Amino acid sequence: MSTPIFVLGEALMDCIAQPDGRLLPLMGGSPFNMARAAALRGASVAYLNPLSTDLFGQGMAQLLLRDGVGLQGGPSRLPTSLAVVQVTDGQPSYGFYREGIADRDYTVDGITALLRQQKTPGILHTGSLLLIPPEHTKVVAILKAAREMGWTLSVDINLRPKVAHDLAQYAQALHEVITLTDWLKASDEDLETMGFANVAIGESARLVGELRKGVTPGALSRVALTFGGEGAHLDIEGQSHQLPVPRITVADTVGAGDTFWGNTLADWALQPADAAGRVASTLDLSMKAAAINCTRQGCQPPTRAEILAF
Fold first, then answer.
1. pLDDT at 217
2. Where are the domains of the chain?
3. Whether 113 contacts 74, CB under 8 Å
4. What are phi and psi of 194, to 5 degrees?
């Protein structure tokens, strides 16, 4: 039986800067993208944050529903948050506008009540902009409550240092979240910004070991590390595998990591048993999904059929 995935995180409009100076609006936000990718792979996915009643929020709700994501957060009268994205040589950089916006219009009690209503605990995923202080205090409280209820906790760090007012405080908040996490995804950029040394795919085993130091017993049983064009490493309870990036023509890399992790979580949700025995095939399919996304502009995760046909 499939395990449900519940997603806590931001939904925002990625306004992509065009060569002529125009901004092309595309729906995005790391957890929003991840939810769509997991649902398109076939998992049961619900989005927990409120969505704005403005035009952007209505469009996001329609896209989530189209891709098979359930809406649990309800509407908000606050506006949708915005990100201005500059893509240079296929790599995106971001500027965020996130004060007084819809996806932060939630309470700890409200989210934990939604989790308690579920018949059986599932997978609770979060990460990215919600981990920035002081917002992370709400997330930590929700993660602690979810852990007590028996939920499996997934985090994609997706660190955004330019948005944080105090980088040291941000890094400390991330370490606090990591100690509570069961399944973690981090990029090479995340690790470098957090202060890890010698960040390279050849150092993956050491980096996973360092991440696991001092965490709650039993936490970080599954860790994925991504290294951009160099490939990715997946460790499940000590069973690990690495793969290079498939050869493709890149349109841009927006949402690649989200698509990768969405497919990884979907694989585990759809087949809860013997995840360690499937570490190589799980990584292979997730890498293919991310590669397909990179052939498209913006985040457009593939379906399961598209991945299998790649």
1. 77
2. 5-309
3. no
4. -80, -5
299, 254 in Cβ contact below 8 A? Answer: yes
pLDDT at 163: 81
Give the CATH H-level superfamily of domain 5-309. Answer: Ribokinase (3.40.1190.20)
- Regarding pTM above 0.90, the answer is yes
Q: Render pLDDT for 110-154 as a digit per residue (tens, 0 to 9).
A: 999 999 999 999 999 999 999 999 999 999 999 999 999 999 999
Q: How many CB atoms are closer than 10 A to CB 17?
A: 17
Report pLDDT for 86.
83
C-alpha atoms less than 13 angstroms from C-alpha of 46 in its C-beta half-sphere: 15
Alpha helices in the chain (DSSP H): 30-41, 55-66, 108-116, 136-148, 167-178, 188-193, 204-212, 256-270, 279-294, 304-309
Residue type, 2: S
Sheet holding 45-47, edge to edge: 69-71, 45-47, 5-7, 123-127, 152-156, 183-187, 222-226, 232-236, 239-243
Given this model, what pLDDT does residue 114 score? 97
- Give strand pairing partners of 83: 14, 96
What was the pLDDT predicted at 90?
66
Count Cα neighbours of 181 within 13 Å in the Cβ-side half-sphere. Answer: 26
Are the CB atoms for 40 and 18 separated by under 8 Å? no
79, 105 contact by CB (below 8 A): no
